Each structure stands twice: as structure tokens, then as C-alpha cells.
Amino acid sequence: MKRIGIVILVLLVIVVAASLGVGNYARSHGFSARGEPSPAEAFVAHRLFLLSIPGKAVDLKNPVQAGPEVLPRAMAHFADHCASCHGNDGRGNTLIGRGLYPKPPDMTVSTQKLTDGQIYYIIENGIRFTGMPAFGENAGDEGDQESWDLVHFIRHLPQMTTDEIAQMKNMDPKSPSELAKEQEIRKFLQGDDSPAVENVHEHHH
User: Fold this and answer.
1) DSSP 89
2) Picking from 12-16, 19-23, 36-40, which range would have the lowest pLDDT averaged per residue?
């Protein structure tokens, strides 16, 4: 009953906000993703965010034991799947991240307040009305090792070193233009000055 009451309260806040002229503002100014959420939006979004994670997820324990082999594989996975929005350091200061609305959280601060189970649930199921997709293949599956690996890595983010960030930069996916530039450099160093041929169809993530 308490959960239903919170949902009703959130809906009432949305209705009141709409009645105070949100519609008129939208027609005259539009809503750009460049801005920052207003305090009212942030309040509603935070409540909806908490409601999007089921209570059972809070108490989930990470079944993957921390070890020397976990961090490197999680680091590579994060660089390939997550860094384009969240950044290699988890702070969200990327071209894509700055263009999202709401912006990605600073995972070195706000995300650390979540339990391991909540972080895992978000990775697996995503968050509606944000840019966070669902990466889990099976709904309700609580045993995805890659996602639990990422939980370990996310816990490590506040202690990331500059060397680790530099190492991850080499793991980031490269665009076709970046691959072409690297090919040109390699050909130049090998004494081949013929133009590089860019083939975007041969590059896969």
C-alpha cells in the first residue's frame, strides 16, 4: 500500500506541474536535451527511478568473487559497452553523455550509494525514459557474470588511476575515421604512401 501511495503522489506532482503551465512553456520554448532538469523534474525522476527497481533487487549479493582476473575483463567490457556514455572514469563527461537528458550520473559518487543488487538490476534491465538500455538477455536472470563483473568495476571507479584510464582508452571502440587514420599511420611507418581505403563494413563491435 505504501508503494501505491508513493506512485499516486508522484502522479499528482506531475499533474500539478502540467497545470502550472508546462504545456504553454513547451509550445513557446520547446524542451532541449541541452538543459539541466529543474528541481521539480529531478524530484519526480528520482522517485520514479527508485520505484523502477524492485525491492528484491536491493538485497541481491554479488556471486562473483573479487579477484585479479575480474577487474581486467570488467574494464574491457566497460570500455566497449559503457564508456561512450559514462566515460572511462565513470563521470559521464563524454560527447554522448553531455547530449543525454537526463545526463548520466557521476558513477564515482551517486551510483556508489546504490547496493550491488540495484546496480546489477540497472545494468540488466535499464531505466525507462533515460538513455540507459537493458543489457540483460533474459528478464529476471540474476546470474549474468558479465554484469556482476561490471558491478565490481563500478565499485572500483572512485579509485581509478590515470594509468588505468589511459589503458582503457586503448580499449574504446574506434570509429571508421579513427581506424582509417591508424591505417594511414601504419602504412606511413612501413614506407607505403598509398592512400588508405576505408571499409566500414569490415569493422564490428
Assistant:
1) T
2) 19-23
